[in-house]
Amino acid sequence: MRETAARPEDRERNAARLLRASARHSHDPLTEIDWDQHVDPDHFALPQHRVALYGTPLWESLTPRQRAQLSVHQLASATAAGIWFELVLMEGLIRHVYESDLTTRHAQYALTEVADECRHSTMFARYITATGYPSARPTAKAHRRGKFHFLLNDTAMTFAGAVFVEEFTDAMQREMVRDESLQPLAREVARIHVIEEARHIGYAKPELERLWAGMGAPRRAVFRRGLLVMARLAVAELVHPRVYALAGLDVAEARRAAAANPHWQQARTDWARKAMVFFADLGIVDHRTAPRWRRAGLLE
Ligand SMILES: [Fe+2]
Ligand SMILES: [Fe+2]
After folding, report:
1. At 6, is the pLDDT very low, low, confident or very high (cuts 50, 70, 90)?
2. Per-domain residue ranges for the chain?
């Protein structure tokens, strides 16, 4: 387990590096993406084997075009979950800045990240609209929980949540960027997001490491459990029940099929891997909590 907290000068050096990278490589998706491009209904938005129902009897019952549409709606749902998470994260970052001194590079970078997330959430909403998916809202449960995030007032949890969700999304979107057979619009959104999120991960990880090193054993025990609750909630948001309803499927049956689907299980474990390695390295996932992460399907 690493116990070394970053020194203030290292924290400033990292933030200065991230600010320079942001100045060089920031994107304006509203002008850089052609939002009027034709969206081919036969194009998949996600690789087929990453669609929650892939390989199940329900999948076999769908036509190729219906399967492609299901992948587009699943991505739109995951994108809506992304907006939900980014809004919660932005709130946490703003509070982090409120408690900091804006003459530090560290605080300045937090605001730069908020600016990135503002553009991302708007880009995601435009993508959802372009697909015809009817809403950018998460489930009622996630909406309620996100609303009370501020009550936690826990910067370490904000950064741990950022590491989990950003690494998870990064893994999913890198697969999309690599796969040239996928819908071009989905890949363009993914490409811009991957570039800018690499910086956010580089900001959240040392900060989480620093805050974790300062926590005592009782607080760590609560934190370990809290993070698992957060991660499970975020992953459950990937496929909103309306995705199945839009495909004309029985929602309860489709959810059961997805939950029992080994391909879908594998997708979530693969996408969570980098975050889980980081958490295990810090000791946030330890021998006592690892079985729970395994049961949640997020750890092999
Ligand atoms: Fe983002
Ligand atoms: Fe981010």
Report:
1. low
2. 8-23+44-295
Nearest CA among 228, 265, 291, 236 for reference residue 78? 236
Helix (H) or strand (E) holding 32: helix 29-32
> Which ligand approaches the C-alpha of residue 82 most closely?
1
Q: What CATH class has 8-23+44-295?
A: mainly alpha
Q: pLDDT for 85-138, tens place per residue?
A: 999 999 999 999 999 999 999 999 999 999 999 999 999 999 999 999 999 999
**203 Cα: distance to centroid of ligand 2 (angstroms):** 10
Gap from CA of 116 to ligand 1 centroid (Å):
7
Any residues with CB less than 8 A from the CB of 229 and at least 6 apart, and which? none
Cβ atoms of residues 173 and 190 within 8 Å: yes
CB within 8 Å of 37: residues ≥ 6 apart:
184, 185
Residue 253, pLDDT > 90, answer: yes
